[in-house]
Amino acid sequence: MTVIFSKTCELGLQAVLFLSIKKEKRIFTAGEVSKELKVPKEYVSKVMQILTESGIIGSKKGKNGGFYLAKSPSSIKLIDIVEAIDGLEIFNNCVLGFPGCSNENPCPVHEKWGKLRDDAYKMLSNETLEQLKEKTLHKLVNL
Amino acid sequence: MTVIFSKTCELGLQAVLFLSIKKEKRIFTAGEVSKELKVPKEYVSKVMQILTESGIIGSKKGKNGGFYLAKSPSSIKLIDIVEAIDGLEIFNNCVLGFPGCSNENPCPVHEKWGKLRDDAYKMLSNETLEQLKEKTLHKLVNL
DNA sequence: CATAAATCGGATTTTTTATTCTGATAATAT
DNA sequence: ATATTATCAGAATAAAAAATCCGATTTATG
Q1: What angle is formed at CA A24 by the lines to CA B96 and CA A138, rounded to 5 degrees?
Q2: Are the beta carbons of B65 and B59 closer than 8 angstroms?
Q3: Residue A1 forms contact with B (CB below 8 Å)
Q4: In the predicted model, is pLDDT for residue B49 greater than 80?
Q5: Residue A24 above 90 pLDDT?
Q6: Domain ranges, ordered by start, for chain A
Q7: What is the pLDDT of residue A3?
């Protein structure tokens, strides 16, 4: 079981982080990313297609093709990837699954969860890939 | 898509909250809970079985049977239900899905997520059903 | 221009999760 | 004591999500 993101989203985040620590415009095949992250090539391919559609990464077909960051690491945030793959519903839905949870008709943990949810959103939307570069580098070399 | 808990866990939380606002030892059939929470009777039945196994609620078979809280609302916490159904892995696993995420080999958001995760855990383990009673009551009458 | 290498995108398979069905069991009433 | 009723609890089914496969297409290179 995953923590809050779908497994596909986790992989998307990992893949984009991987691209962000490499030189700009350097291109990687799904196979290369797959090898580095130790996940199936086909699954990487699938996930990167989704991210290509949403404009976060670019793809080049044919020989010497592959995937690359479409924007600079300083203008991409983790929340962008989450939004592209899982969407933002988790930041709106009731954590207990009650229908119609709102400030007017709150669930028992509405207020407390709201604070946590906002903090999580901030965490994902404040820092850019550029700012995470060093930490990312360190983690990926130790995979 | 759910927020962090499985749908089964959400229903478990709702069902236990429902029982907690009723007089102690009062017994409810799966059908009654189902009607109140507006979810299929069979699914309620299934979820309450799991909670019965883990000792949070009790069950009585036969005519006039049903389910009831096995302990007092002041000694049950939301985390107990989460643990019984989804387990506590979400409080240990890496939010980005990286293997071997730890203080020694942290992912890019390890520290920040750790804080959020601990806050969430606290939220679920600090308050008892008794303390949530009023809020629960208010929410359930408005379903 | 033909070949090789690589993606794309849909289709398929597998796995997990959600939901429903059914038989065994328990309790009440006659 | 037996029949009847209503439950629980496990098994079976359906639905959703994850993972994989494959053919069509694209592009660089010889």
Answers
A1: 40
A2: yes
A3: yes
A4: yes
A5: no
A6: 7-141
A7: 96
Cβ-based burial of A47 (10 A; exposed 0-12, middle 13-18, buried ≥19): buried
| pTM, full prediction | 0.94
- Torsion B20-B26-B27-B31 (CA) sign: negative
* Structure confidence at residue A73 (pLDDT): 93
CB contact at 8 A, A8 and A1: no
Tell me the sheet residues that pair with B67: B28, B59
Residues 6+ apart with CB under 8 A from B123: A109, A112, A113, A116, B78
Q: Residue B66 CA to chain centroid, in angstroms?
A: 19
B17/A contact by beta carbon, under 8 A: yes
**Which residues lie below 8 Å from residue A62, measured CB to CB, with a gap of 6+?**
none
**Statement: B7-141 belongs to CATH 3.30.930.10:** no
- Rounded CA separation B43/B51 (Å): 13
Residues in chain A within 8 Å Cβ distance of B92? none
Query: CA–CA separation, B27 vs B57, rounded Å?
Result: 10
Indicate whether A120 pLDDT > 70.
yes
> Do the beta carbons of residue A84 and residue B80 sit within 8 Å?
no
| Contacts B94 to A, Cβ<8 Å | 3
Between residues 34 and 73 of chain A, which touch chain B (CB distance below 8 Å)? 38
Confidence category of residue B129, pLDDT binned at 50, 70, 90: very high
For the ranges A31-35, B51-55, B63-67, B108-112, the one whose mean pLDDT is highest: B108-112
A21: closest chain B residue by CA: B108
